[in-house]
Amino acid sequence: MSNHDDVAVETVALTRAFGKSDARVEALRGIDLKVPRGQFLAVMGPSGSGKSTLLHVIGGLSLPTSGTVQVQGHDLATLDDDQLTLLRRRRVGFIFQSFNLIQVLTAEENVALPLVIDGRKRSEVEQRVREVLELVDLGARRHHLPAELSGGEQQRVAIARALVMDPALVLADEPTGNLDSLSGEKVMRILRRLVDTRGLTLILVTHNSRDAAMADRLVYLRDGRIVEEQILSAAHSSREVLRQLEELA
Amino acid sequence: MTLSYLVLREVRRRPGRTTLTFFGIALGVAAAVSVALTTTATRRLYRDMFETLTGRAALEVVAEGFVGFAAAVASDIEKIDGVRGVFPIIQAPAALLTDQGTAPVLVLGIDPARDREVRDIKLRAGAYLDERDGILIEAPFALAQGLEPGDAVRLLGPGGFMATEVAGLLDPTGVGMFQGGSVVFLERRRAAQLLGLDDQVNCLQLVLEDGAAVDEVETRVAAVLPAGQRVQAPASRGRLARDSLLSTEQGLASLSIISLIAGAFIVLNTFHMNLAERRRQLAVLRAIGVTRRQVMGLLLREALLLGTAGTLVGLVLGVLFSFGMTRGMGDLLLMDLPGLQVTWEPLLTGLIVGIGTTLAATYLPARQAGRREPLEELCSHRRTDVGARPGPSVWVGVLLLAICAVVTTGFLCGWMPVDLITPTMAATLIGFVLILPLFLTPLLFLARRVLVPLFGVEGEVGLRILERQRGRTALTAGVLFVALIANVGSGSSIRASVRDLDEYFERTIVADYLVRSAMPDIGLLSAPAMPEDLDQEIARLPGAQSVEKLRFLPARVGDQPVIVMARTVAPDLPVHLDLHNVAPDEARARLRSGEVIAGTALIQRLGLEVGGTLTLATPSGDREVRIGGATTEYTAGGVILYMEWAAAQELLGVKGVDVFSIGAAGGKAAALEAPLRAFCDQRGLLLQSNADLRAAVDQMVRSILVSDWVILALVFVVASLGIINTLAMNVLEQTRELGTLRALGMLRRQLRRIVLSQALGLACVSIVPGLLVGLLVGYLMNLATLSLLGQPVEFRVDWVLLAVCLVVAVAVSLAAAFFPARRAAGLEVAVALQYE
């Protein structure tokens, strides 16, 4: 059994299948994975390899077909729908490729949403929102609707929203996939800084080797299995890391 | 594969929305068709009632007031070119007294030797009148009365009681079918004796030569008739009933149109939603070479498919509804309406209106679809609302309302025909819905003030979604808005009219007891008359203080058929009428001096004035009669003249009494009942206490109110379909956002609350203007009664009705949110996040 203080996420023999009989697709086929607290883990792999499914199962958005998932010591299989929801609300932050901001709410309101849902006091909501918007350098754009923001800005709003509940775990599904390289780099720098300064555990699913190169550790999925795992040491030069990743891909 | 195939695929892909739209159309058409069928059935009843009596006669000669006249003129008429034969007859209501009780019948006094030339009657049992003295009756009617040939019966008419026997039974065909078979054939002289007509007749039936032009013969016959007699088509006698029932028919027609409008707005909204959802698909079609016209045709074909299917089902539902509505109308008229005849006119109208409305409602969205630029649609990821800003339709609405305001003023001033009330009401409703977007911002602000404190963040999100989809929100709220206007407007008017009717009865029906031979036909007010001298016998009963005689006589003022209500007016008793601008004592004095008190509706319709005169057609020619006063009158739709008994006898030759109105001496009303009942039982008469009469009137009023309220409820049902449609679409469109909210930690029940708050937001947006405009419409409808009743029904704000409508609107909205809310709460988060 893992020590809860050290391990943020642990999966054992995790499988996830969709459909039945002939149409059955096994997206995950026995994933054993342990992510220590404060680690930045990058998950790479070709399309259909199961990266996003793994992220959804870890985040409690989708239930495993078999095996176990523990998030900060909680076995997700033992939680009912409301408990899973509360876990997501308070301990997990999500960042999506297509931002998934609520279009009818301003940047500030989008960020405040998890706090409001959780019934926090207005003063606390205002303070936290201000803090996280400053953190992602969006204080000046707080009153804008998502449609009025650039892609990079929208993704920074999404990051702020993921951080506003001060979660120990952030799950990011290709956060730079819809951004230009400059915006993407800015987003990745923010994420890296958060891991370094706040002790956040970040699981990043990406196709982008440059993004993955900023992680502490990399797992490579193919056909629902982990086929490669690598610690990306700070001692390696970034060029060397990139070369290794491209070889993997 | 053709584009039509795509249409079918689209319809099948959205079974829920297709079903809701389909029923929106079907219910609207059903309401319109059922009202049209019921109205047609009622009008047909009165037209056929007289046509069945006439057999082959194309014209008839009658005296004014349908009183008796000498048949001598028949010989002159027979000489006229085009007339094959003249058949003097007597037609009048009488009472048939059997062991089973009293039945109202129509007595037809004929010449047995000649009558087969004008009427086809087929003897089933017994003997014809030239072989055996007695009466002929229709076989099933005889069976219902327990009569067989040879059985003794009595008849009661103004000439007194007549003992006779059943000579023969007729097959239920032709004339035998009159009013469910309640017709009695009698030798003409015997009929004259029964009806107190001496040697007179009251109708000459004219059979024309084959190919003779009826209009020309009518003109020639009119030229030889003495003053006080006229020639007419037999069916024209039904016009009085049509006039009497005008307000009832107008009310039902207005309500059915409202249902149809609500259905049309659902169609419009649905196709706007389809368009929003299929932007990309339509853009792809345009990109691969489909023309603008083809895109437009694609949507119109879809509308045609839905419109045709919905209309066909609506026609079937309309026929089914009309059975119940016809029964209600039958209860109102106190007669069994003949089996509902489904004629092609209402069905064809329903078909055209149903499909036409659907296509008209789809035209604008279809045109918009055709005009879109494909590249813009393909590249745009942002979903935008169709019709987000108030467009030209708002100004169309403003224009429509301005025109309706002018027309409504026309009704109030009496220079617009009342037939335009229904289309004006429809146009007013459409106008109000079209201008609703102008007020959406303040209404949503109001909704926010109510809902955010109740629903918190879920309420805020729900309202933001409504705000974003302004066009859709306005159209959906518009359907509920129509339902509220209809219910508050028509409901206020109906309840005010019922209240007015109650007060009218309170003031005018003060007799302790009424004695009559049978209940009258409400449309024509014809009833079997009783001998006049019965009043002396009643007056001698212990406890009786006053006995008034009443008789309803058909007459004419100019071309307008009217009812003359002849009544005795005692010099020392008050006149119980709902008088205007004349004191009861003065009215009594004027009546006794030979003046008439006219119904306000008649005064309004003919532009008469109190103190002026009117020209009454009498058996001795036209006579000027002074109008001594005006009275609110619901009987015969207010087309009525009150006349003192002696004056009516002099002018119209009144014979017989329809109703004896009896007042008991102080405190002896209960004591009078027993001797009065014994008196009536002995003679086969009908005794009604004041309470009995009130109950009978209540029953009649209730029978038609049921139809009104059912149609009004139907409008709410249609509105709920619209709300379900919109909320389901909102949930579908926001699938990804709802998934995100779940991912962020929103509970399933919180998503449910978002949908519920949207439903309540729609209710809030509709309720405030709906109640206000509903009150305005109710006020105008009450004013419009001026043109129907001759005076407006007093308007009062009906707080109970407002409260009920408010609760129903909220309940309908919440109920409509049930399935969309369940769908939202049941979303699989991971799947929802992938939703495109």
Structure notes:
The complex is a heterodimer of chains A (249) and B (836). Chain A is an alpha/beta fold. Chain A has a single domain (37-60, 79-248), classed as P-loop containing nucleotide triphosphate hydrolases (Rossmann fold), CATH 3.40.50.300. Chain A contains eight helices and ten strands. Chain A has helices spanning 51-58, 81-91, 107-117, 122-135, 151-163, 181-198, 209-212, 238-248; strands at residues 7-18, 25-36, 40-44, 66-71, 74-75, 92-95, 169-173, 201-205, 217-222, 225-231. In chain A, helix 3 (107-117) crosses helix 4. The two termini of chain A are 33 Å apart. Chain B has 836 residues and is of the alpha+beta class. Chain B has four domains: 1-52 and 237-382, no CATH class; 59-232, no CATH class; 405-509 and 697-836, no CATH class; 531-684, no CATH class. A six-stranded mixed beta barrel of chain B has the order 2-3-8-5-7-6. The relative contact order of chain B is 0.12. Chains A and B meet through helix 2 and helix 3 of A and helix 15, helix 23 and helix 26 of B.
